[in-house]
Structure formats: C-alpha cells, structure tokens
C-alpha cells in the first residue's frame, strides 16, 4: 500500500523525530511512504486567527498537492480535523495516523516495545472535532512493556489553542498549570498525544519546571522496538 | 407603542431576508405514549423514587388509609390549621382545622396557616414532578405557595410516565388559559457553592401521598 | 468593555485566588451533576436535535410567531408592548410602575433586565427594584455584578455570603456556616416584600406563540411569589424566546433543567397565560425586547447564538470560564455563549477580544442542549473582526500576510525553516511572541523532517506533488 505523508509545517520544522517515527512505523507495517515535498501548511493557524481567506487558500493548496495520492496520513488530529471541516478531506482519503492504523490497516498491535510509564493526553481536537475515539488508547495498550496510566480531568483542554496561547497567555497558563498537576499526579515518565501542538505546550512547561517528565508523540512510542 | 411594534417586526423581517428556511422538528426522541398510559406499577415506583430524591417525603397508602396518614403527617409537623382548595374533595383530617379557600384567603391569611393540603392535575414519574393546574383539587396558585408546608395527594391514575406525556396532557389546560405550576420537590437553591439546600421561599416541606386503589 | 478587553480583564481575574477556588469548585461540581443527569436519558441526542430545530424554526418564522404571541396574550387579557432598545424598554416598564404609584418593585432573576440596566433606570425615577433570587440578592447587597448566568454569585463562597448577610439583612445575627441558615435569612428578609409590593418584574424562559403562555423556570419559589402575589406583573422577554407551539415544551423542559442545574426537573416551573380571574395578577404586561437581537438575527451563521436557552452548561464546561470566572467577560452574558452573543448584541467593535477568549476546545458545543456550534461561530466572528475592524497594516495582519505568503510556496517555506533555526524570520516572529517567557520553547532542530527525508539512503519512489 502506498501512502502519502502530510507531516504538517509544525512537525516538519519543530518535531522531525515524529515524522521519522511515522515513516519507520508505516514501513514496518508494509506501507510504501511518499512525501510530496510541495506541502507546507494546511491553513489552520490563519483560519483560527480570523484570516480565513488565506486559511482557505492554503487548504485548497493542500488539496492540490495531495490530489494524486490514494491515501494520505498525517500525525496531527488537529490539522486533519481542520482540513475535513474545510472541505479538504480528499473525499475520505485523508486520515489521521491512528485512524489509518486501526481503520485502514486494521492493526492495533504494531509490534512496538516501550517499557515506560505513559500517560495519554487525549487532546480536544482528537476527541471532540475529529472523533478519534479510543484508537490511540487501543494502540498504546498493545505496546509491550508499557505501563499506561490514566490522568484526572483527561478530556480538559491544556490551554494551547494555537493563537489563544499567545493572545490570552495568562488564561492559557492557568489552564496549563492544572494540566501539569494532572500529568504529574500520575507519576508518568512520558506524556503522549496524537498531536504535537498540545505537547509543545505541555512539554514546554514541563521542561521549564525541570519536572522530569518528557513528552513524545504517539507515533514515536509506536515506532519504538 | 405601536411604532415600536412596526419597527421591531420590520427589523426582524429584514434580518431574516427573503425566504428563511424553517426546519421540520425531528422527533426521534421518546414522544408521548412511548411508555404506555402510566398508572402501572413500574411508573408509580419510579415516581415515588424520583420524588424522594428531592428530599420530599413520599407515602404510599391505600384509599382508606389516606386520612390516617394525613393525621400522622400533620401531627409530626404540628400543623393545626391547613388550607384546602375550594374545589378539593370533602377531606377531613382529625384534629386539624381545614380552612377552605372559599371565600378566597388573602396572602397574609395563607402566611399564617400551618400548611396546605391539595391534590394535583397530574404527576410525571420520570422527573418526580407534581403538576398543579389552577383548578379543582390543585387550587389557585397562591394556595400551594405561601404556606410553608405542602401536603399533596396523588392518585395512581394521575401519574404519567414522561415529560412529553405530561406536556401533552396539559395542552388543553394551557389552551383554556389556566395557569400551570410544575412542582418537583420542595423549594430549593443552589446559589451558594452550587450546594443544593431545600427551603427558600416556597414550601420548605413537601409531603406526597400516593393513593392506591 | 474596557479598552484592553478580555485578556487584561482575565489577567486581573486570574489574580483573585479566592474567586478561582470558588468558581473552580462550583463548576466542577455542576459538571459532574449534569453529566450524571444527562447520562440517564437514553434519547438525549435526539432531544438535542429536536431542541436545535425547535429554536431554528422559531427564528426562521419569528415575525409570524411574535404576532401570534401578541394575539394570544392579548386575547387572554394581557397587554403586549414592543421595545426597540434598552431605553425604550426601561421607559415602558418605568411608565407602568409609575402608573401604579409603585415606590418598590420585586424582581425575579432576569438576564434581559440586567442587560438593559433596568434597576438603575427605575432608581433614577425613584423606584427601588428588589432582587428576590438569592444570588441576585447577594450581588445587590454587595453592589456586585453577576458572574454566571444561572448562579450569578458563583464567585462567592458561603463564608463571604454569611459575612455579607450578617452586615446587611441579618445584622447582629450569627448565621453559622450552614447554607440553610443563610437561605432562611433571605426568606425572612423577603417574605414581607412578597406580601406587600404591588408590582413585580420578571423575565421569561419561553413564550409560546400558539397559546400565549409564558414560562419561567426557577428553584427557590421567589419566581412563583413574584408571578402570583402582586397585582401587576411585567415580563420583559427577548424576542428570541418565542416558541412556536405548546408541544415544544416537551423538549425544552427536558433539556433545560438537566443541562442547567443538573436536576431531572427544577423545583418550580410557572406557566401562565394572560390574566386569570381570582388567580394571580390582575394586570399583565409583556414587553418584547429587541435591543440588538435583530442584528444577531441578520448574521446567518451567528444567529444561532439566539437559540440559547440560558442553561449555562457551556460556562460550566469551559476551561476558560472555570478559571477566569464571569467578570472577565464584562457582560451579563459570560462564558462561551457570552463570547459569541455579546459582540453580536453590542457590535463587534465594542467587544473585539471576546471571539478570541476561547481555546476552541469544543467542550461548549458538546454540552449545549440546543447544539449551538459555538466554536464555529467564534471562528466566524474572528473572521469578521479581521475583515471589518482590523487594520490591514496592524502588526498581526502584516505578520499573517507574510507567513501566508511563505506557506504559499515551497521555496519560501524552506527558506523560512532555515531562518527559524537561527531564531529569526517570519515563522518565529509571527507565531510566538510572549510564548517563551512562560513555557520553554524547544530548540529548532538542526535538521527539518524534509531535510532528513531527502538525506535518506534508500529513498522510495516519490509521489507526484502538484506544486505551488
């Protein structure tokens, strides 16, 4: 199976290790990965800030770049949800990574080993916008050696919200500090999610606090052997 | 102010544009009749359970036990003078002075009474709600409001299963222009710390008597 | 609205640690209660669909419904008034009160009358408006404003209320720490008012065009007192509260209490139609209020804000509201619904920061009983703020334009990535001012993903890029 990777501008620039993990994982599962290099940004940042004409034109650009692909996978629930909402879901060919693994490839055990205590932040856009359900959890539960723990108030927003974290930095920080408490309460070594945007936010504060907990995209755990 | 009227209506029409789309209301929810006619055992059990959840007292009595139960309740509350609606059945409660609302009692007179004994138009099991319709054994609104203690007699056939059943049964009452009051437990507030406490301005004690047979 | 809007007001609110404890505790309590009560209704989603359609239908046919409502209320002996704005509404209500020589009026909690500043307008003509809802009474005694749609004094805890009452309506008494005793003090204080004040003012939850029935949903019984005992009743109702038919209540009366207080049914629901001889007020006035609502109705996407039935579930579930409390929204309509309603009612230029007062987490939409898509309306209003009010040469607009051009071309995008690695360039400038002061920012990695991809030894055949 051939699949085109939409890495997202955010991951491309700031989290290349997530992209490498996605490639490793998909190739291990027998897929042939393409990377259309013309891809840039889906337009979500512009749209969410109010610059919707530009946001839409970037979504259209995404559609053109991936027009020829049979299947497109992306490790960002937030970008996938945005593209679908804006009519750029490529007629169902665009899938978020965990959807692609569970629904298209039909695997839950991806052959990963990760002997650490891990807490999953479900992320608002994964759960509420995209309806990802329990796919991330099902995938994590099959990872060998993992100690998957639950956090309190898991479904609550971490306070990122893209432009919100900058325009309303004080409120964003108040939300983040509560999320950190919930993460730290679990005693987890790793906080994971299906989206690096939340993890940038949570991870930034964990690092600033020298909290001794690291963040990893779900793909990186699933790629680990 | 007729100019206000025309202005507001004109603005509404302008805002809506030429042909606003009015959707059909999808009724995939449980409509009236979805649970049967009510009055059955399960419905009555549910009603009693739900009323009790509001920290109202529920007593299930057979017809001939009602008056005795009312006597006991009044004794417990030390209620000696109790209002009854003008259209209520000829209840008698031993040891209690029943003050019929005919001629109408003033609000101040009601405030000096120890309680009120009423029936109801119907009751809703799912929500533990008593419905008063401003007539007959329900009485006018002030009667079941001003006294601090409300004893309410509910007959088995009064109890309908759901809110849609209740609303459907009340359509005629509304069309006649009679006031309707839905009572679900005693007066309560959650205004401080969202902690529910019973008893502010309405009757602070609600005793419900479900009469079987 | 203050000059700096929500961010600054929120900053100030977040510094009030007592308020944050009070609001945080209260909202988490009510969230859990609502969730439990909703979970026991198997057809909840179907009820939400019906509720959304009931409101949309009423909006789409509003001129007809308002005329029907007017006719049925009039037929039942009520008098209907129409008010274009706050001043007109206050004048109508003030005129009726004056006509009866009232020096005092008693009030049921009403957001519409808060919105139009009715109490101040009445005070200016020498009429004292006495709030009878416990929370409204607390705010009135404390010269404070509402911070929540349902429980306007949610920002205060019992200790604060106890002290307030002991200095006002229960002077010299020790009320103890039991909320029952605090409620009892309010009961004693207001009982005489209920029995003697001749004019009452209420809002309305629903007005049924078909029958002319007005519905007020409440808990304490102060509503019933006001609606029943005085000789004259004046109800101020926003025009968006109109419902088409009696039957609509079978949906709304299920959705509202469970979403609002998390109860199967609220203690008291009053439904009355005009005047009834021998039962209740002798005179009933219904004032239909516009005050910006038709402006909201004129926005095809934004008009769903008018579907709101004021349950406040969106406030309680909102991670922003539950931390800032209501005052930061600087409106009688706080929280997510306020963030879309206030700017539309007052004009976007008067509240341009409110559409941004959300992380777009979607919790509000999930709980809304009439399925108002608040996140979509927020985005829509952000777009309107940018298109209608923001200068094209504001720093943000310029940065967005630049970044937009960068994303429009693979070449410019890859150049910008290289600049970002040096801590410079448009991506860094646009995305993250003020960020790294509070959260650590990761180093921009030496190698982007695409650079790694190109450097892979055994590269598979590449797909066709459509190109810029």
The coarse overall form of chain B would be globular
Number of strands of chain C: 10
Major beta sheet of chain B, specifics? 6 strands, parallel
In the CATH hierarchy, the third-tier topology of the largest domain in chain C is known as Rossmann fold
| CATH H-level superfamily title of chain B | NagB/RpiA/CoA transferase-like
* Distance between the ends of chain C: 44 Å
Number of helices of chain B: 5
Largest sheet of chain C: 6 strands, parallel
The multimeric state of the shown protein is heterotrimer
Fill in the CATH topology of chain B: Rossmann fold
CATH architecture name of the largest domain in chain C: 3-Layer(aba) Sandwich
Classification by helices and strands of chain C:
alpha/beta
The CATH first-level class of chain B comes to Alpha Beta
Main attributes?
heterotrimer, A: 225 residues, alpha/beta, Rossmann fold, 2 domains, four-stranded parallel beta sheet, 12 helices, 48% helix, globular, B: 213 residues, six-stranded parallel beta sheet, four-stranded mixed beta sheet, 5 helices
Write the SSE topology.
The complex is a heterotrimer of chains A (225), B (213) and C (468).
Chain A: E1 2-5, H1 9-14, H2 16-28, E2 32-34, H3 44-49, H4 52-65, E3 72-74, H5 77-85, E4 94-96, H6 97-104, E5 117-120, H7 124-129, H8 135-141, E6 147-149, H9 164-167, H10 169-185, E7 190-193, H11 196-208, E8 214-217, H12 218-223
Parallel strand pairs in A: 1-2, 1-3, 3-4, 5-6, 5-7, 7-8
Helix pairs in contact in A: 10-11
Chain B: H1 2-16, H2 41-53, E1 57-62, H3 66-77, E2 81-84, E3 97-100, H4 107-112, E4 115-118, E5 122-124, E6 129-132, E7 149-155, E8 159-160, H5 163-175, E9 180-183, E10 188-189, E11 197-198, E12 205-212
Parallel strand pairs in B: 1-12, 2-3, 2-4, 4-7, 5-8, 7-12
Antiparallel strand pairs in B: 5-6, 6-9, 10-11
Chain C: H1 6-14, H2 17-39, H3 44-60, H4 62-75, E1 79-83, H5 86-99, E2 104-107, H6 111-115, H7 118-124, E3 128-131, H8 134-141, H9 158-167, H10 179-196, E4 199-202, E5 206-208, E6 213-218, H11 222-228, E7 232-238, E8 242-243, H12 249-260, E9 268-273, E10 283-289, H13 293-297, H14 313-317, H15 321-324, H16 335-346, H17 363-367, H18 374-389, H19 395-407, H20 410-421, H21 425-431, H22 449-455
Parallel strand pairs in C: 1-10, 2-3, 2-4, 4-7, 5-8, 7-10
Antiparallel strand pairs in C: 5-6, 6-9
Helix pairs in contact in C: 3-12, 16-18, 19-21, 20-21
């Amino acid at each position: 199976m051939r699949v085109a990777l939409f890495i997202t501008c955010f991951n491309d620039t700031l989290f290349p290790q997530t992209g490498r993990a996605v490639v490793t994982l998909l190739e291990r599962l027998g897929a042939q990965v393409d990377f259309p290099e013309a891809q840039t940004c889906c337009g979500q940042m512009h749209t969410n800030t109010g610059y919707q004409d530009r946001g839409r034109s970037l979504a259209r650009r995404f559609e053109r770049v991936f027009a020829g692909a049979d299947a497109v996978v992306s490790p960002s629930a937030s970008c996938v949800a945005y593209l679908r909402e804006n009519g750029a879901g490529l007629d169902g060919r665009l899938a978020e990574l965990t959807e692609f693994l569970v629904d298209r490839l039909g695997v839950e055990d991806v052959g990963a080993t990760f002997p650490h205590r891990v807490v999953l932040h479900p992320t608002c856009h994964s759960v509420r916008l995209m309806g990802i359900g329990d796919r991330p959890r099902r995938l994590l539960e099959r990872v060998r050696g993992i100690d998957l723990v639950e956090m309190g108030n898991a479904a609550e927003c971490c306070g990122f919200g893209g432009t919100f974290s900058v325009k309303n930095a004080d409120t964003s920080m108040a939300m983040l500090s509560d999320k950190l408490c919930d993460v730290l309460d679990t005693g987890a070594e790793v906080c994971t999610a299906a989206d690096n945007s939340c993890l940038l936010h949570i991870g930034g504060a964990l690092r600033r606090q020298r909290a001794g907990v690291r963040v990893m995209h779900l793909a990186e755990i699933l790629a680990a052997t | 102010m007729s100019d206000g009227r025309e202005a507001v209506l004109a603005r509404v029409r302008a805002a809506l544009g030429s042909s606003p789309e009015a959707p059909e209301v999808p009724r995939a929810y449980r409509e009236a009749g979805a649970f049967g006619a009510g009055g059955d055992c399960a419905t009555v059990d549910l009603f009693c359970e739900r009323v009790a959840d509001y920290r109202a007292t529920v007593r299930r009595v057979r017809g001939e036990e009602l008056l005795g139960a009312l006597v006991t309740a009044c004794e417990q509350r030390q209620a000696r003078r109790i209002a009854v609606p003008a259209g209520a059945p000829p209840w008698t409660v031993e040891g209690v002075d029943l003050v019929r609302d005919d001629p109408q009692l003033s609000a101040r007179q009601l405030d000096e009474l120890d309680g009120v004994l009423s029936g109801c138009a119907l009751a809703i099991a799912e929500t533990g709600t008593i419905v008063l319709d401003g007539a007959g054994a329900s009485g006018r609104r002030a009667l079941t409001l001003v006294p601090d203690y409300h004893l309410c007699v509910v007959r088995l056939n009064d109890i309908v299963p759901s809110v849609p059943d209740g609303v459907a049964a009340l359509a005629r009452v509304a069309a006649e222009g009679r006031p309707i009051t839905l009572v679900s437990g005693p007066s309560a507030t959650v205004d401080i710390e969202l902690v529910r406490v019973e008893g502010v301005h309405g009757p602070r004690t609600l005793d419900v008597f479900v009469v079987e047979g | 609205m203050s000059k700096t809007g929500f961010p600054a007001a929120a900053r100030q609110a977040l510094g009030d640690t007592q308020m944050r404890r009070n609001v945080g505790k209260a909202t988490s309590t009510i969230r859990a209660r609502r969730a439990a009560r909703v979970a026991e209704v198997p057809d909840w989603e179907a009820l939400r669909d019906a509720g959304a359609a009931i409101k949309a239908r009423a909006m789409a046919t509003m001129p007809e419904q308002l005329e029907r409502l007017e006719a049925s209320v009039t037929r039942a002996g009520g008098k209907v008034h129409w008010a274009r704005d706050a001043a007109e509404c206050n004048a109508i209500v003030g005129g009726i009160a004056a006509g009866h020589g009232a020096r005092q009026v008693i009030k049921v909690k009403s957001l519409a009358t808060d919105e139009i500043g009715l109490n101040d307008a009445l005070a200016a003509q020498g009429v004292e408006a006495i709030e009878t809802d416990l929370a409204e009474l607390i705010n009135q005694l404390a010269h404070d404003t509402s911070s929540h749609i349902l429980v306007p004094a949610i920002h205060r805890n019992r200790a604060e209320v106890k002290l307030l009452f002991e200095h006002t309506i229960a002077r010299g008494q020790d009320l103890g720490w039991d909320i029952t005793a605090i409620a009892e003090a309010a009961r004693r204080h207001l009982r005489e008012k209920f029995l003697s004040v001749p004019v009452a003012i209420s809002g309305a939850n629903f007005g049924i065009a078909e029958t002319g029935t007005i519905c007020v949903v409440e808990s304490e019984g102060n509503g019933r007192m006001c609606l029943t005992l005085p000789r004259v009743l004046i109800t101020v109702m926003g025009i968006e509260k109109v419902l088409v038919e009696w039957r609509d209540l079978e949906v709304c009366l299920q959705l509202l209490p469970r979403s609002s207080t998390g109860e199967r049914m609220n203690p008291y629901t009053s439904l009355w139609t005009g005047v009834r001889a021998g039962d209740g007020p002798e005179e009933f006035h219904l004032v239909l209020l516009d005050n910006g609502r038709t402006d909201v109705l004129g926005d095809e996407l934004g008009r769903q804000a008018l579907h709101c039935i004021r349950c406040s579930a969106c406030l309680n579930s909102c991670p922003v509201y539950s931390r800032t409390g209501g005052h930061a929204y600087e409106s009688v309509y706080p929280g997510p619904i306020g963030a879309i309603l206030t700017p539309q009612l007052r004009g976007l230029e008067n509240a341009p920061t409110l559409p941004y007062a959300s992380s777009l987490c979607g919790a509000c939409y999930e709980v809304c009983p009439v399925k108002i898509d608040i996140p979509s309306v927020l985005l829509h209003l952000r777009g309107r703020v940018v298109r209608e009010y923001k200068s094209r040469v504001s720093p943000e607009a310029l940065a967005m334009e630049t970044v937009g051009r960068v994303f429009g071309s693979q070449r410019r995008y890859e150049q910008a990535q290289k600049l970002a690695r040096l801590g410079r360039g448009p991506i860094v400038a646009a995305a993250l001012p003020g960020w790294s002061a509070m959260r650590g920012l990761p180093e921009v990695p030496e190698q982007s993903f695409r650079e790694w991809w190109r450097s892979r030894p055994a590269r598979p055949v590449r797909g066709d890029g459509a190109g810029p």
